[in-house]
Amino acid sequence: MIASSLLVLFLPLLLFPLINATTFTLINNCSHTIWPAAIPGGGRELTPGSNWSLARAAKASNGRFWARTNCSFDASGKGSCLTGGCGGILNCTADGSPPATLVEYSLYQYGNNDFYDISLVDGFNVPVQIRPNTGDCITLWCAADVAGSCPAELKVAGGCDGACEVFKTNEYCCNSGSCRPTKYSRFFKNLCPQAYSYPEDDATSTFTCNSGGDYTVTFCP
């Protein structure tokens, strides 16, 4: 009887973090299989039309999502991908290899706001959309054919590299001091105006939404 009473007492406390969690639903709208990755969260295979939902605790946290392409994994989860691979494993524990179109988020920040963005700093491999499930927050898109019009010096198999990855200089990587837009960042910005085009592209690329809502991330929107 005591055990039952304790369960009734503490059940709301156990459920509270789940009820108030922020859920990200990742959808594969591409015509081909992709292998989305999440830091934190791991990774999995998504066939066309399938989805993957991940819950984040109702507290300050941050992370990122991206799609991996042309992957092959064995039964133990070891393998490789053409783009976005994270050390040869299915369940990622580290960031992916460029090129990869990133969706980034920071939850429950100052003023009880979430911050979210699409980033092409690590290049582009798959079009993406992030949609807050709150009506007054902005949906972000990067749906242009970036890979198809990629400058020759950035073009790689499966996508379009970022300039920092190719040239590795401060002009493009912004490792010290401040840096300015370049012809390569302008290329990305022209095609995907809402996305980060270089590391200090904050003013036009970071968006906020009241914390507590859910998000839908669609690959190939």
From TrEMBL:
Keywords: Disulfide bond, Signal. Belongs to the thaumatin family. It comes from the Eukaryota. This is Thaumatin-like protein. Disulfide bonds join 30-220, 71-81, 86-92, 137-209, 142-192, 150-160, 164-173, 174-179. InterPro entries: Osmotin/thaumatin-like_sf (IPR037176), Thaumatin (IPR001938). Residues 1-21 form the signal peptide. It comes from Dendrobium nobile.
